[in-house]
Amino acid sequence: MQSMDYHLALILIFTILGTLFFAFMFFNEFRKGKALEKIKKLPFKEEYEIFLDKTPHYRKLSSEERYKIQRSILYFIHTKEFIGIGLHVSDEMKIIIAFYACLLLIGKNTSYCYDKLKTIIIYPHAVMIKQVHSYGGIYSKEQFMIEGQSADETVVITWHEAKNESYHMRHNNVIIHEFAHEIDFMDGVIDGVPPLEHSKYDGWVKTLYKEFDQLNTIAHKNRDWGKYKLLDTYAASNEAEFFAVVTERFFESPTALKHHFPDLYEEYKDFYQIDTAKLFA
Question: Of the N and C termini of the chain, which has fewer Cβ atoms inside 10 Å?
Fold first, then answer.
């Protein structure tokens, strides 16, 4: 009898916990929905559009695309915490970072822009960081400069570099690079393979890894770069960095990427659902 009462008590406890969990999830989704509805009613300030008009990418968007990305920007800046280190976070910083982050998802059908991302940390200039490595029990320290970083629920951006790259189309764009990492991690693993439909997985891996392996071989020899100069040595670090660097080129140098790496370009066009060579030519 006591054993039966014990099992009944366990069932009751798990039932209550399950009910509370689903109630919490329902409330959380309800709260998100209400927040989204509130943000949808917010006007897009004229000064925000003045910032965006200075970027080469915003000027190429259609009226419909501009409206869509404006809504995404408003959601982004009202649901993320922006923290300045050694500087005051201005509206310009928020809008430009949000724009390039959301530009990557403009072809996607999503209501929430980087829903799991919580914090954007902004430094005025490139940051020196230290890392400790272990090789066979021997520890060593390394120092190197970073212009941005993506980790867990946080993205780090250095504004000096970001601002210069945002107002001119160049090969590099630190904001695009770091948010490409965020997209890569959306499936739980940062490995150069973003969330893909199962039917598209093999084609992506075959194309991406073929070009990565070739670049990696050339980078180690440091000669006969040819068309791989477009991608540079940093893309040879690992598959995740390759994905992020090629994403930069896809949005910053799309014509060159399409010319030199047509198969790679097609995979990225299919994933991001935007023909950047046509739109940003």
Answer: N
Phi and psi at residue 34, to the nearest 5°: -65, -40
pLDDT tens across the length of the chain (281 residues): 455 566 666 677 767 776 765 555 555 555 656 667 787 788 899 999 999 999 999 999 999 999 999 999 999 999 999 999 999 999 999 999 999 999 999 998 766 678 889 999 999 987 655 544 444 455 544 444 556 677 778 999 999 999 999 998 888 999 999 999 999 999 889 999 999 999 999 999 999 999 999 999 999 998 889 999 999 899 999 999 999 999 999 999 999 999 999 999 999 999 999 999 999 87
For residues 87, 89, 92, 97, the Cα torsion angle rounded to the nearest 10 degrees is 100
Cα separation, 247 vs 222, in Å, equals 23
Count CB atoms within 10 A of the CB of residue 271.
Answer: 20
CA distance 163 to 148: 13
Give the position of tokens 């940093």.
234
Q: What dihedral do alpha carbons 185, 195, 61, 162 form, nearest 10°?
A: 20
Sequence-distant (6+) residues with CB within 8 A of 148 are 155, 156, 157, 158, 161, 162, 174, 175, 177, 178
Strand 127-135 versus strand 138-146 pairing type? antiparallel
Residue 60 neighbours by CB distance under 10 Å: 15
- Residue 60 carries which side chain, given as an amino acid letter? K
Secondary structure (3-state) at 232: coil
Give CA–CA dist 132/190, Å, rounded: 21
